[in-house]
Design brief:
The complex is a heterodimer of chains A (about 450) and B (about 300). By secondary structure, chain A is of the alpha+beta class. Helices cover about 45% and strands about 10% of the residues of chain A. The chains are: A alpha+beta (about 450), B mainly alpha (about 300).
């Protein structure tokens, strides 16, 4: 007892801890930590990064095309409305996961997600983003229709999944940058913009110098990169990625002819094209080693930048060549409001403001791919930024990818077989028709099998 | 009979109470360990039995995801590619690592500099390694094509064909992970007693004879541990190859890890991806068990 009394009178720092003391301290600590975590998880305490109506949080992936949006317009919105904007950006893959998780669990970390347009089906069908129609958002009628249509779920036209066949399309996301593939060509080799793929092939055959000047360059890496090369060809030759009944539309004569055309460029392309992604393809053009290629609008900012380009003022832009028709792939930057957005009204106000015609005209004045017809077709702005009329033309002729959450898998399957076809053709240097037919048929059967396993298509 | 001065045996009740107290004190650590280690594993197995559609859980799927995985040709090919990759890498790295360890163990002049130089590659982050080798292999700006050109081999384009791309990723792995084998095996060599080796030399045994009859048997447990560790690590290779080839051309470098990642995070097939992971995990556990058994049953371990 005396010993106990003695211990009690000692300082807590000098006394010897008994097992009971250790347990008590441990339990109290653990209880405290658990309680904190539980309170945090259940949000008993009000917690909202943008809970105030005077603040919105925008999350996005990093892309050069977003620089004027971030540096000029987000700041301008803050100063004009007094609503604070927190702007968080990360890389593309991480943002796809981050935004999806945030929306699925209604975490409320963001108000606005900047999305790639092919995420819209999954995000809308999965409840990651809210219906803008239900929030009372009215889209600016000046926005080009093909860009605007990327935000509808279910899609307004084309193949629809069975479960959504009878559902009226609603606007879930609003386009903010009309990114679309356009043709970049060096006017040193082309007197006028080539109108057809045959024109490109003719000039390439006449003027290419193997190893130093390529008539054409492309992205050849498997998956998404080579798909961006193939889609404008496929659409131009009258094929479809998928038909309205979800059957693959690329394995017929049109798709085969489109792939044969791509393979026919082999003598005029860099010999390592099968491993080329955007950076290598673009370098060939900017170093003056390539006569023409198709690429998204982000490249237009680099062609006249003397620190990056040896062909300043020499590159012109036009809609992608046609054969039966012109059919560039469209890949807009598009904004949705998070399902758990703490400030949907502020988010709606921002999107309404940014997509308004006057702001879009100012956006086009930075050389950016605005989304309204009046901005893209403004002759004064078009004279300064020669790619803007080409973008308007390309958007109006663009062909959307299949509107399905399974589009990435379909793209991966076809993109893998296209890459295999290119590798085989590079090695054989002949037999392109047989290679194209075999690989496209294989991809078609794999995509059909996959869609059947997923259900909801046939 | 208890000797005088010897500690008195505790009564059973006290002993049980003391043991229980010890386990009770271990409980928080065990719980934390279970949370961070066991829970994800259990959650993964549960997820492999759920039907996820576009990232949303649609209920119990039974063995559906497993049936899909074993019928999925791309998955089977990814497993085959992984097996081929792991086998090539581990064999080459073991041989090279052992050769380097034997060399450095011979009291070379400047051994510490050699040691540092050899282990440098494994200190570089795998993603950086991927970027570095992408620049080395690039057909337009890389150094591989010009170097091969000097040797009279033209137009190879390492990443441009299926065979060369596969060999290219193996070379990368060998460059990065041979140092690990070297380090482990060097430590093993330095732990071998010198007396039997000296005695063998005194008896007139040749260098090769000493190596095969004495060094290798004594090194065997360490060698097995190194091989098992490296094999398990190589099966999970992801970053370098994702950066370098994304699994291409075609599916020639699509390892299991890349296909599982794409299935989960690109195609939102969480259930199917987890089923693939569980199948692989089972395979790795079987391999590890066999390896451990071999180590225990081998000479030099008793």
């Amino acid at each position: 007892m005396a010993e106990e009394a003695g211990v009690k009178s000692d300082s807590i720092f000098s006394r010897k801890l008994s097992r009971r003391d250790a347990l008590k301290a441990g339990l109290v600590g653990a209880a405290g930590l658990s309680a904190g975590a539980i309170f945090e998880a259940c949000t008993i305490f009000p917690k909202s990064p943008s809970g105030s109506s005077k603040k919105i949080v925008i999350g996005t992936f990093q892309d050069n095309a977003m620089v004027p949006f971030r540096d000029v317009f987000v700041k301008r919105f803050q100063s004009e409305t007094g609503i604070q904007v927190q702007y968080n950006e990360t890389n593309y893959d991480a943002w796809y996961q981050n935004s999806k998780n945030d929306g699925l669990h209604k975490t409320g970390a963001y108000d606005i997600y900047v999305l790639d347009d092919n995420w819209v089906p999954e995000f809308a069908a999965g409840g990651v983003i809210q219906s803008l129609d239900k929030l009372g958002f009215k889209a600016n009628p000046d926005i080009l229709a093909n860009g605007l249509n990327q935000g509808y779920w279910p899609p307004k036209s084309g193949a629809k999944m069975k479960a959504f066949a009878g559902t009226a399309p609603e606007l879930y996301a609003i386009v903010i940058i009309d990114d679309v593939e356009i043709l970049y060509y060096n006017k040193q080799y082309f007197d006028t913009a080539p109108k057809t793929w045959d024109d490109i092939a003719r000039i390439a055959a006449a003027k290419s110098k193997p190893g130093s000047l390529y008539g054409w360059s492309a992205r050849g890496v498997k998956g998404n990169p080579i798909m961006q090369t193939y889609l404008p060809l496929l659409n131009a030759y009258g094929g479809n990625f998928v038909n309205d009944d979800w059957s693959p539309g690329f394995a017929g004569p049109e798709g085969v002819a489109a792939l044969e055309r791509l393979l026919s460029f082999i003598p005029y392309m860099p010999s390592g094209v099968a491993e080329f992604d955007t950076d290598q393809e673009v370098q060939a053009l900017l170093q003056g080693k390539c006569m023409a290629l198709t690429e998204y609008t982000g490249l237009s900012h680099q062609v006249d930048d003397s620190s990056a380009s040896k062909v300043v003022g020499q590159i012109n832009m036009a809609a992608t060549p046609s054969q039966v028709k012109s059919g560039p792939a469209i890949g807009t930057f598009i904004c949705g409001i998070a399902s758990g957005a703490p400030n949907p009204d502020g988010a709606k106000q921002f999107l309404d403001w940014f997509t308004s015609s006057p702001i879009q005209i100012d956006f086009a004045k930075t050389g950016s791919a605005a989304v309204t017809g009046t901005a893209l077709k403004d002759p004064t702005i078009g004279a300064q930024y020669r790619w803007l009329p080409a973008i308007a033309d390309a958007v109006n002729n663009s062909v959307a990818k299949p509107r399905s959450p399974d589009e990435p898998k379909m793209e991966d399957i076809l993109g893998t077989r296209l890459n295999e076809a290119l590798v085989q053709a590079l090695s054989q240097k002949s037999g392109y028709h047989a290679i194209a037919t075999a690989k496209l048929t294989q991809a078609a059967s794999e995509i059909t099998a996959y869609l059947k396993s997923q259900g909801g298509y046939f | 009979m208890i000797a005088a001065g010897a500690p008195r045996a505790l009564p059973w009740s006290r002993r049980i109470s003391r043991a229980a107290g010890s386990y009770f004190l271990l409980l928080p650590a065990a719980l934390v360990l279970a949370l961070v280690s066991l829970y994800p594993l259990v959650y993964g197995v549960i997820a492999s039995l759920r039907h996820y559609l576009y990232g949303v859980d649609h209920g119990f799927a039974g063995a559906g995801n497993y049936l899909y995985a074993i019928q999925d040709q791309t998955f089977i090919m990814a497993l085959a590619t992984t097996a081929k990759y792991v086998l090539l890498c581990v064999v080459i790295e073991t041989a090279l690592g052992l050769a380097l360890a034997l060399l450095v163990n011979r009291q070379l002049a400047g051994a510490s500099i050699w040691r540092i130089g050899i282990i440098l590659p494994m200190t570089v982050a795998p993603v950086v390694v991927g970027v570095m080798w992408r620049l080395i292999y690039a057909s337009d700006i890389g150094i591989t094509d010009p170097l091969l050109g000097v040797l009279g081999v033209h137009g190879v384009h390492v990443l441009g064909s299926e065979t060369t791309a596969f060999l290219g990723v193996v070379v990368l792995d060998v460059w990065e992970w041979t140092p690990l084998m070297f380090l482990i095996l060097l430590a093993g060599l330095q732990g071998i007693p010198q007396e039997p080796l000296e005695a063998a030399v005194m008896d007139g045994a040749s260098g090769l004879r000493v190596f095969f009859d004495h060094v290798l048997p004594m090194l065997r447990p360490v060698l097995f541990v190194a091989i098992v560790l490296r094999t398990i690590d190589a099966i999970g290779t992801f970053d370098q190859i994702y950066v370098l080839t994304r699994g291409g051309p075609g599916v020639s470098t699509q390892l299991f890890s890349i296909y599982a990642y794409n299935s989960a995070f690109l195609f939102s097939q969480f259930g199917r991806a987890m089923a693939m992971v569980v199948i692989l995990l089972a395979g790795v556990l079987v391999l590890a068990a066999i390896a451990i058994r071999l180590v225990r049953s081998g000479p030099g371990t008793r």
